[in-house]
Design a protein that fits this description.
Elements lengths: L1 E10 L2 E11 L4 E5 L6 H8 L7 E6 L2 E2 L2 E4 L2 E4 L2 H8 L2 E4 L11 H12 L4 H14 L15 H13 L5 E5 L7 H15 L24 E5 L3 H7 L2 E6 L2 E6 L1 H4 L6 H10 L1
Parallel strand pairs: 3-10, 3-11, 8-9, 9-10
Antiparallel strand pairs: 1-2, 1-4, 4-5, 6-7, 11-12
Helix pairs in contact: 3-4, 3-5, 4-5, 5-6
Bound molecules: adenosine-5'-diphosphate (ADP) and magnesium ion.
GO molecular function: ABC-type amino acid transporter activity; ATP binding; ATP hydrolysis activity
Keywords: Amino-acid transport, ATP-binding, Cell membrane, Membrane, Nucleotide-binding, Transport
InterPro entries: AAA+_ATPase, ABC_ATPase_HisP-typ, ABC_transporter-like_ATP-bd, ABC_transporter-like_CS, MetN_ABC_transporter-like, P-loop_NTPase
Length: 270
């Protein structure tokens, strides 16, 4: 679903991504951990066209992000094509980013009507079903300011799902929440990871043989919630100083890290 190859990104003299390679299979949950400033947000943002890599390529579901290929040459995409691609990549921010002047249900119907050309009626039916899924069926007509942070973030997740994303990106989705509200948001994300009971491939184990197969939403989650990573991730990626230092199943990266930098980081957050 996602293939990142040799991606580099600098802001002026600051090298933020120093050659990142990452592959994420369809239906997999990848959790990215690492110290502040290590480039986690920048990596997510390059997947969603919010930043453009200086070099390297990013492919999402077989489509080159930000480029099109003609023969062996790459050409940058036009703005309209970028918007079209971005429609299929959901992004959930730390601080929710809801439209404050729209009700909850309107927050969910706006983009499907505008970008997917759904009828208002169809978009509303989908929105109500998604709100039920995140436990907020009774909040459809509320405004964001009338909701708790945890409820607002669940609305933001439902809004991302309303665009039927093939890839969902979360950038520290619980970092702005009071501690007692973190669990309800993580539970919703956990649920997305196991959205479908019967894997089409008939596989019974995940890519590392430790988890039941599932055809849930493909997700990349940046978080400091190590317990969540242990429970939900198929793959944990540890980033430090613009590079992926170590990646693998949670039992290895969190349970028996090979790299000293991973051990040092975990000893600070655990
Ligand atoms: P993380 O999410 O791991 O904390 P970021 O990807 O946000 O790290 O940032 C990595 C580094 O890049 C930081 O030093 C940050 O200050 C810098 N940075 C991020 N975005 C910009 C930008 N738009 N302009 C300049 N520097 C930036
Ligand atoms: Mg960040």
């Amino acid at each position: 679903m996602v293939e990142v190859r040799a991606v580099r990104k600098s802001f002026g003299p600051l090298d933020v991504l120093k050659g990142v390679d990452l592959r994420v299979a369809a239906g997999e949950v990848t959790v990215v951990i690492g110290p502040s400033g290590s480039g986690k947000s920048t990596l997510l943002r390059t997947l969603n066209h919010l930043e453009k890599a200086d070099s390297g390529t990013v492919t999402v579901d077989g489509t080159l992000v930000g480029y099109r290929r003609s023969g062996d040459k790459l050409y940058e995409l036009r703005e309209r094509e970028i918007l079209r691609q971005r429609t299929h990549i959901g992004f959930v921010f730390q601080d929710f980013h809801l439209f404050p002047h729209l009700t909850v249900v309107e927050n969910l119907t706006e983009a499907p009507v505008a970008a997917l050309r759904r009828s208002r009626k169809e978009a509303t039916a989908t929105a109500l079903a998604l709100l039920a899924r995140v436990g907020l069926a009774d909040k459809a007509d509320a405004y964001p300011r009338q909701l708790s942070g945890g409820q607002q973030q669940r609305v933001a997740i439902a809004r991302a799902l309303a665009l039927e994303p093939k890839l969902l990106l979360f950038d520290e989705p619980t970092s702005a929440l009071d501690p007692e509200l973190v669990g309800e948001v993580l539970d919703v994300i956990k649920d997305l990871g196991r959205a479908c009971e019967v894997p089409p491939s008939g596989r019974t184990t995940g890519p590392h043989g430790h988890a039941p197969a599932r055809q849930g939403t493909t997700m990349i989650v940046v978080t400091h919630e190590i317990g969540f990573a242990r429970e939900v991730a198929d793959t944990v990626v540890f980033m430090d100083d613009g590079r992926i230092v170590e990646q693998g199943p949670p039992s290895q990266v969190l349970g028996a890290p090979r790299e000293a930098r991973t051990r040092a980081f975990l000893s600070k957050v655990l």
